[in-house]
User: Fold this.
Amino acid sequence: MANNLQIASAAYIVMHLLTKKKQSSIKKRRWWTTQIFRSRQIYNGTSMIRDLNFHTDSGQFENFARMSQEDFEHLVSLLTPIIAKQTTHFREPIPVNERLAVTLRFLATGESYTSL
Assistant:
């Protein structure tokens, strides 16, 4: 009787450990967007461009984009049908004016992509 109890207890412990090991080996699902991309709405290129547009007399926008605001808006209107992305359930796309501003800044300054 005691021998059967020991065998049953050992079998229970082995089954419990195997079940626990299987549960711990299941990985937690990860989202394919990182925290920096999810918090993009706090301060992004759109708010920066809006701030630059707000100070029109100081010439900050022309210094940033190396073109006038009218030329920038004209270029955005030309490029929007070509490079605009659709909004999905997973994330909001980067607006055309942000993408264009970063591209122009990259081409104008020659800075590295990560510093932009």
